[in-house]
Amino acid sequence: MAEIGTDIEKAIHLLNAGQLVGIPTETVYGLAGNALREETVARIFAVKNRPSFDPLIVHVPGLERVHRYVTGVPDKAVALTRRFWPGPLTILFPKLPVIPDLVTAGLDTVGIRCPDHPVTRALLHRLDFPLAAPSANPFGYISPTTAQHVDDQLGKKISYILDGGPCTIGIESTIVGFEGDDAVIFRTGAVAREDIEQVIGNVSIRTAATDNPVTPGQLHKHYSPHKKMLLGDIRKLLTTVDVSKAATLSLMSMFPQLDRKRQLILSPTGNLEEAAKNLFSTLRQLDKLDVDFILAEEVPDTGIGRAINDRLRRAAVIE
Ligand code: TXA
Ligand code: MG
Description:
By secondary structure, the protein is α/β, with parallel strands linked by helices. 30% of the residues lie in helices and 20% in strands. It has 11 helices and 16 strands. An 11-stranded mixed sheet has the order 1-8-2-3-7-4-6-5-9-10-11, sandwiched between helices. Strands 14-13-15-12-16 form a 5-stranded parallel sheet, with helices on one face. It is globular, with a radius of gyration of 19 Å. The two termini are 38 Å apart.
């Protein structure tokens, strides 16, 4: 198992030596390494068992650093960083050759974000390279929101995990790119479309859930528990399975036909921010129950609810 601790000096030492470290962010924990060192980046893909066509996000301590890695920063991107950085927004920029092609899966854009977590910000300020960091889970499985989650899955493959407590947001960053002057959301996430539109006007959404994949990273099946998860109207789904083998996942509803211990809710008050924060840890809890099916239903499709529903759809087999 990996060592879990709060020793930033140790993390700096390991990262300078080209090794990988589990790091906390406000969204999910990342599996971090020097983004400019090809063999380190290759190790990230290997540890996650991630296909090489799925690009990584690069983490920086602020906008000043972005200029070292990209050919240009559009005005709208500057406006977005002013409003949302540090925070859960990843922006796609045309990359300079200093960013290895392995990081971007051969694409000519690189996704960059400045995370809002005091531990990781302190770390990034102390390093003279940016950190490539995908979510610290095996490819396709549920994202980690505590240091323990990282250790549970990747502990045998890395030596150190920086513990920054449970993630305060709990769902990944929103990814925005530009086509000419038009802004496009390629992954819904913690920053809602409405909030982006308040800063730069109209933004379209083009994720795998709304379109055919246009970029290699937009995979349908993702965030999945090992158990079979069915997404729909739980009341109806309950009539189609052996109830004694089922557990439920709902925003706030309970179902009288089922043992209470097998009914997990995301927020007792129906608060979507709280639901986002609890989503991945609740999926992990469900995956450990002695049941065959997880029956889940969507949350209201507004604000961060849209990102929650995106994760639920990709985790599930839709019936
Ligand atoms: O909140 C987050 O973004 C977390 C934390 C650790 O920062 N990171 C994260 O990374 O979610 P990951 O690797 O699990 O998801 C990154 C996704 C890729 O699967 C891909 O869809 C997209 O980001 N991506 C990265 N670079 C891209 C690019 N140049 N063009 C299009 N999509 C890109
Ligand atoms: Mg991920």
